UniProtKB/TrEMBL annotation:
This is A-type ATP synthase subunit I. It is found in: Membrane. Residues 298-360 are annotated as: Disordered. PANTHER family: V-TYPE PROTON ATPASE SUBUNIT A, VACUOLAR PROTON ATPASES. Its main location: membrane. GO terms for molecular function: ATPase binding; proton-transporting ATPase activity, rotational mechanism. It comes from Halococcus thailandensis JCM 13552. GO terms for biological process: vacuolar acidification. Component of the A-type ATP synthase that produces ATP from ADP in the presence of a proton gradient across the membrane. Gene3D superfamilies: 1.20.1460.20, 3.30.70.2170, 3.30.70.2750. One of its GO terms (cellular component) is vacuolar proton-transporting V-type ATPase complex. Keywords: Coiled coil, Ion transport, Membrane, Transmembrane, Transmembrane helix, Transport.
């Protein structure tokens, strides 16, 4: 990427903006106001009017429910008169619709309030209009209302008509009293309702209201039909107008990012280096010598795409003064051999970042960007997450049935949603589901059942999970494999950190920082996997690759190699790290900090045993669900028993197998019709729970290993996305 400067006279400002906008190459840097004598520019005349029209267009799109993905392209549109006509018509229809909706809400409320009146069945004219009686209608507790009326001295007599909770109260005030009923009922359990005027029966009145509601529904439907017709007539226009106005606003507000004087301007930004000539030629064709284009800085990459050099070019070495208009109307820039305020970047910005990964890797950019976008000088770790995250997930779940469901869910999310972020989650789900199926076939399991083991692998799958006592060596193997995976994963992270520190700060910093961590980690784990002090270490560290389940001939490093790893690796790394910490914090704090943090290389690798732990936990959950549904028995000598589900036999089958077999659970499916129904519920619900917990446990644990144990070793982030000034047209053609 190259940092470029465009300097021009004020009178060619709009032509320069138009040219840069059409190219869509320059990621414009916002001027931060730090240069003496330069001010941020002002919007070009008409920006406010265009912005107001843009707001109007977008509100009309919302009102008419215009699909932004609608296909269609128009040329340049005349926004003014047509927009005003559409706005007036749409707003008038919307106002009518809102009036009808408001009246309909009122009718619904009145119908709802007629419930007690309909229950009582008393004509409306009989519920009010008396000279000597006071009436109230509502809902409440009849006994509470009677008690309140009986206790009132200012009520001569009363009568209640009750139907369920509906109550009609008729009361005659005592001589000389009036308006007594409202006060009397305050303390009773009674909620009054308004009685509408009329002489019809409540049912007839409600029928009239319902007829009016139906009429309003038809009116609303007619208005919405007119709005639909209006949308179909003007949808393409509104989309084109929105795009055209958005482009116009973008262009007219562009000077806000420029540094300006009374007669000239300076714009800066980043552009792919190989396209600099295109920018210069386009501006030359557009405004000739009335602007000057310079390459101020170039950031170079090596063959691996890493930043290896960032330096000023010759154009920026002479110093740049205030731009002046030349006698021929062009632009000249004074140079005095020194430096000026304008030599500094407008905002000290890093080059923007373009993440260019192969298509299968791109969804994993989302996982990286959840932390932050890579800086221009950093390696994009998306490819490493692509290689490891689905494998971690698939290893932990390892089941063909669950893998098929994860793949289906991922495919559904990927195809049904338009958001790039959600589609990326769907694509990640596809990869995770694929690896889950792969490991499921290797484990020989489908929904926790060993059907693939029996019918594909002849009873002996390539690998096992190690859930039964007979397969405990497999469980021990996965613990060791988890440690080895952690060592490999973290080694890659430390090496990447070493390279970055070497490129930025030199060999000494790289050795004292990432180098010391890597040496410590490898040193202590070489000692752990050595015969030094072997009696204090688990035996399976030395047997899983020298017997069961794999006879690879590795029974641990020799005691000598272990001592060399501990002294020449771990202790040397501790010393190097303490030197680094002393340089940061001083002697005593540095020594304490370095000594205490050194043991993290042990803890960090142990963290990867969660791979084996989740593997066994999920296998155990699926086993329990199948145990409850099918039933199971154990068979074999103590400490080496195997588990078998009762898929083809009933519980009685176990009794004929001899004393070496023991029934674990008979299975709900063998307990009659009630057991079958309950078993189906348990089976379906249980596997749904395992499926969901697979996402929340295996998924989150894999994410944690990536973020905390891996990316934390070298990745900082903080880059800005390459966002060139311009607009990709979808609904309008170029002028």
């Amino acid at each position: 990427m190259s940092r470029v400067s465009v300097t021009g006279a004020d009178r060619v400002l709009e032509d320069v903006i138009e040219t840069i906008h059409e190219l869509r190459l320059v990621d414009v840097t916002d001027y931060d106001g730090a240069w003496e004598g330069f001010d941020p520019g002002n919007p070009i005349a008409g920006a406010d009017e265009a912005a107001e029209r843009l707001v109007t267009v977008r509100s009309l799109q919302s009102l008419l429910d215009v699909d932004p993905e609608r296909e269609g392209r128009m040329g340049s549109v005349d926004v003014g008169d047509r927009l005003e006509s559409v706005r007036e018509e749409a707003n008038a229809l919307d106002d009518r619709r809102e009036e009808y909706r408001e009246e309909r809400r009122s009718v619904d409320e009145r119908i709802g309030a007629m419930g007690p009146l309909r229950a009582l069945g008393i004509d409306l004219d009989l519920l009010s209009g008396y000279e000597n009686l006071e009436t109230r209608v509502g809902e409440g507790e009849p006994d509470s209302v009677r008690a309140a009326l009986d206790a009132a001295d200012d009520v001569a007599r009363h009568e209640l008509f009750v139907e369920g909770d509906a109550i009609a109260v008729f009361a005659e005030p005592a001589a000389g009293e009036e308006g007594v009923l409202e006060d009397v009922l305050v303390g009773a359990e009674f909620a009054a309702i308004d009685v509408p005027e009329g002489d019809a029966a409540p049912a007839e009145y409600v029928s009239e209201l319902e007829a009016r509601r139906d009429e309003l529904d038809r009116e609303i439907a007619d208005v919405e039909g007119e709005l639909d017709a209006l949308r179909e007539e003007h949808a393409d226009f509104l989309l084109a107008a929105e795009e055209q106005l958005a482009i116009e606003v973008e262009k007219r507000e562009a000077p806000l990012s420029f540094a300006t004087t009374e007669n000239a301007f300076i714009a800066e930004g980043w552009i792919p280096t190989e396209r600099f000539v295109d920018l210069a030629e386009a501006l030359g064709d557009s405004v000739g010598e009335h602007c000057e284009v310079e390459e101020l800085e170039r950031a170079d990459y090596d063959s691996d795409g890493r930043l290896v050099n960032r330096e000023q070019t010759d154009a920026d070495e002479g110093g740049r003064g205030e731009p002046e208009t030349a006698a021929d109307g062009g632009v000249k820039v004074e140079t005095d051999g020194g430096s000026t305020e304008a030599d500094r970047p407008m905002s000290g910005s890093e080059p923007p970042v373009v993440q260019e990964n192969p298509d299968p890797v791109r969804p994993f950019e989302m996982l990286v960007n959840l932390i932050d976008r890579p800086k221009y000088s950093e390696l994009d770790p998306s490819v490493v997450l692509f290689l490891t995250f689905p494998a971690f997930f698939g290893f932990m779940i390892g089941d063909l049935g669950y893998g098929l469901l994860y793949t289906a869910i991922g495919g559904l999310v990927y195809t049904r949603f338009e958001s790039d972020g959600i589609r990326s989650l769907g694509a990640i789900g596809l990869w995770a589901g694929g690896f889950t199926m792969l490991f499921g076939i290797l484990y020989g399991e489908i929904f926790g059942l060993h059907l693939i083991t029996d019918y594909v692998w002849g009873g002996h799958p390539p690998i096992e999970k190690g859930l039964s006592p007979a397969g405990v060596e497999w469980a021990q193997l996965w613990l060791v494999v988890s440690l080895l995976v952690g060592l490999l994963h973290m080694t890659v992270g430390y090496l990447l950190g070493f390279v970055e520190e070497f490129m930025e700060d030199g060999l000494r910093t790289a050795v004292l920082e990432s180098g010391s961590w890597l040496i410590r980690m490898l040193g202590i784990w070489i000692w752990i996997f050595s015969e030094s002090a072997a009696g204090s270490k688990p035996d399976f560290l030395f047997t899983v690759f020298n017997g069961e389940p794999f006879a690879l001939g590795f029974s641990g490093f020799s005691a000598t190699v272990g001592i060399v790893g501990l002294v020449g690796g771990f202790l040397l790394g501790v010393v190097l790290f303490i030197i680094s910490e002393v340089g940061h914090f001083g002697v005593l704090p540095g020594i304490v900090s370095g000594a205490l943090e050194s043991l993290q290389v042990l803890v960090n690798v142990l963290s990867y045993t969660r791979l084996a732990a989740v593997l066994l936990a999920k296998a155990g959950m699926a086993f329990v669900v199948n145990l409850l549904f099918f039933g199971a028995y154990r068979e074999g000598p103590a400490g080496a028993q195997e588990f078998h589900f009762l898929l083809d036999h009933g519980p009685d089958y176990v009794g004929g197998l001899g004393s070496g077999a023991e029934l674990m659970f008979p299975g709900l499916i063998h307990m009659g019709i009630g057991g079958v129904i309950g078993g189906i519920v348990v089976f379906l619900f249980g596997h749904v729970v395992v499926l969901a917990l697979g996402i929340t446990s295996a998924g989150l644990q894999a994410i944690r290993l990536e973020y905390v144990e891996f990316l934390n070793k070298f990745y900082e982030g903080g880059g800005d996305r390459y966002n060139p000034f311009g607009h990709e047209r979808e609904h309008t053609a170029e002028n």
